[in-house]
Amino acid sequence: MAMDYTGFAAELRDLGDPLADEVVKELLDEGRINSVNNLFREIGAADSPIPGQTPGALREFFESTRAFPDWVEDSRLRDTAAFFRHHHMAASAMQATVGLVGTYLSPVGAYTLHSTHRLSHQPHRRLSQSTRIFMGMGDSDAFTEHSKLVPTCQKVRLVHAAIRELHRRSGEWDYEAMGMPVSQLYTAGAALVFSVGVLDGMENIGLTVDRDEAEGFMYAWAIVAHFLGVPDTYIHEAMSSHTRAADLWHEGREHEWASSEEGILLTRECIDLYESYMPPGLEGAVPAFLRQALSDRFADMVEVPTSAFDLGADAASVGASTLLGSPVGHNPVSDEVIGHLGKAVERVCREAFTAGQETEPQMADRIG
């Protein structure tokens, strides 16, 4: 019998990542976090050589966690490739907005994100680091031995471990109320938000996704969850199919999503940043887009402002979308918004880099 969300959460809420956690404890004890963050820039692909100066425990971690799991099937990856061929821009735009706000709707997740001082008040930097996985998933080599996505996931896995260990050392984390910091429930839940939540959002704004392609997108996130450290047992339990994942997440969302001060603040920063990239005539498009994709109920929890901008979601038509590049059921107005949001995601990453802000995932050495 499939596990319900209550059972799923009970098993994952207090579960960390022993392999990554032990590596990070050693790096923190030796004061090597900053030097290791510099090494991250030199590991660009799954088949990149590990720099010679890499500490032994870290070298072993990168080498032992870079292989694809034996359950990956080429036939399912063809559906993944088809999804990104047709929907890469839309998916990136959705993940960088609806997906991120979905993580902010988790009060524990929002509190954890806000507690990492390195990213406070630097939305370009925070969002550029957050979107590296989304942008990389559509690369032609993302799920090959030359993958750039795999080392990005390995680095994010270590970032999560650093947050767990720093909160443990602070003595201020309320384990009884919040469970393990960045627990496997948080990581698996984020994978569900960025997959099921994004597919839901696409449907809500009038984008049609073929069933096999939706399964391919779900499968991509199952693989990403593996590389982020979620045990395969729970990946198979939660993400074996889009239907199973959707059922589990829609149940879980009722337990996990709520209003919080941190979630409201992070959402406001996200909206303000992307609104700054919208051209004349699209003022108010970002909050309107979020409200349509999330529904008013959940948008209200993080105080997404109401907007006079009309997405015209009831005027959906079918035809060749010039912005999205494929024949899909679409709404011309929401297509235009998605097109500009997709370009904004690319600009956020580019401008963070050219402004000298670190766009690689980075471990923190203190909580602020």
UniProtKB/TrEMBL annotation:
Residues 88-305 form the ER-bound oxygenase mpaB/mpaB'/Rubber oxygenase catalytic domain. Keywords: Oxidoreductase. Its EC number is 1.-.-.-. Pfam families: MPAB_Lcp_cat (PF09995). It is an enzyme of class 1 (oxidoreductase). InterPro entries: Lcp-like, MPAB/Lcp_cat_dom. GO terms for molecular function: oxidoreductase activity. This is Oxygenase MpaB family protein.
